[in-house]
Design goal:
Layout: H1 2-10, H2 13-25, H3 43-52, H4 59-66, H5 70-80
Helix pairs in contact: 4-5
Length: about 80
């Protein structure tokens, strides 16, 4: 990346190394999940797992399993689209 080379010349060595460490730590390549996939253990992942079952899941089943109100389930679905 050309901007990295230009910044390399303009930054003190200690700051450049700190930025490189930060850049590699938060790099998308270090993520174990694909873009667009929910993180494991989140409510979104739990609901999507219920929907992916062979029998699927109804809104009332999701509300009961997640301890949500029906309007929360509807809001969840609205946020997915």
């Amino acid at each position: 990346m050309a901007w990295q080379e230009a910044n390399r010349l303009a930054l003190p060595d200690a700051l450049y190394r700190a930025l490189e460490t930060l850049r590699t730590t938060v790099s998308p390549a270090s993520a174990d999940r694909q873009i667009g996939q929910p993180r494991e253990g989140t409510e979104q992942a739990q609901v999507l797992a219920m929907l992916c079952r062979d029998e699927g899941a109804s809104g009332s089943q999701i509300a009961k399993a997640m301890s949500w109100s029906p309007h929360t389930v509807r809001g969840f679905f609205a946020g997915l689209k």
